[in-house]
Amino acid sequence: MPRRDTILVHGATPFDAATGAVSVPIYQSATFRHPALGASTGFDYSRVDNPTRSELEKTVALLEGGKYGLAFASGMGAISALIKLFRPGDHIVVSEDLYGGTFRLFNEFYAHYGFLFSWVDTSDFSRVTAALRPETKAIFIETPSNPMMKVSDIRLCADLIHQRGGYLLVDNTFLSPYFQNPLAFGADFVVHSGTKYLAGHNDTVAGIIVHSCDAYDEPLRSIQRSEGATLSPFDAWLVIRGIKTLGVRMERQSANARRIAYYLKENPRVEKVFYTGFEDHPQYALSLAQARGHSGMVSFYLKDKADVPVILRNVKVFLFAESLGGVESLVTYPWEQTHNAIPESMRAAAGVTDRLVRLSIGIEDVDDLISDLDAAFSPNSTV
Questions:
Q1: CATH number for the segment(s) 247-377
Q2: Exactly one of 4, 16, 47, 301 is catalytic; which is it?
Q3: Predicted model pTM
Q4: What are the residue boundaries of the structural domains of the chain, listed by start?
Q5: Is 99 a catalytic residue?
Q6: CB of 271 within 8 A of CB of 230?
Q7: Quick one: which of 170, 248, 306, 309 is 20 to 30 A from 211 by CA?
């Protein structure tokens, strides 16, 4: 089997057999002609299956070391499909420090249908254990977490929930399959916001599920085709194109993030920096054990809340925008943007305060990025 970097470039199918095209064709068709009654080419209707989307699904499954891949119109669509594998009355332990949209989906929608959720710091395994109930059917973790960069032990969580006949779901968006493969550590399902590192160019929205559970292949595909939250052929092609450069992008973003994390650590207006690549990070050794890198994500507390609008207004190379993982560097204010759906008390308990700023480091010249932050931090900067 080809190695990871070769799979990134060539995907599951290196070229189109019919034409020799080295770029996967965009099958922009809603329907497909049947050769005869009772006969099919394998594709009938694009909501059910599409050749371009199928190629993306197979490629990400290969990268994650799974048997099955499913591509959705968004990461939230992928997570919603996963939760439908469970039933009202089932209990799921969830990382308290995770994307606010996931919290909103669970708390404002599935909780009303009788699903039960406990929100805990899953980087503290004793808290995960303490949160279990007789009706617990799954653990859902983000690792590293968004935006506090906490790392949860995939193997321990998997072993714990498997002892009870349950499943471990891992959001692998922050590291991508280039740096981390949760299935190799016992996870049952891996989910991605394909919008982020996989696509990598801030130009499409996508979600991915990868797993190796034979019993759940057809149920998940039934959910996918019945609800219709499938990824369009063109968007699937954009993600495939993005994956070709995932390795070189992640290496550059990771290197840039390391420089910027150490720069912020020495900045007198910064109180604390959250970055998994610091040797004094609480889960640094765990990061090295289950991941191959630290991606481009850095968060930090400002000493003075008044500096928040100053920095957001004055950055020029960094773009003040939501999302992450693209080639452009972004600065985000989780308190009002990505995590606003989480109650204030929960945000504060998880460390998401009104002094927290999150950076997604891109592939620009790192000295330009540091100069941009220097200018934004300048005492002469004003709102």
A1: 3.90.1150.10
A2: 47
A3: 0.96
A4: 4-243, 247-377
A5: yes
A6: no
A7: 248
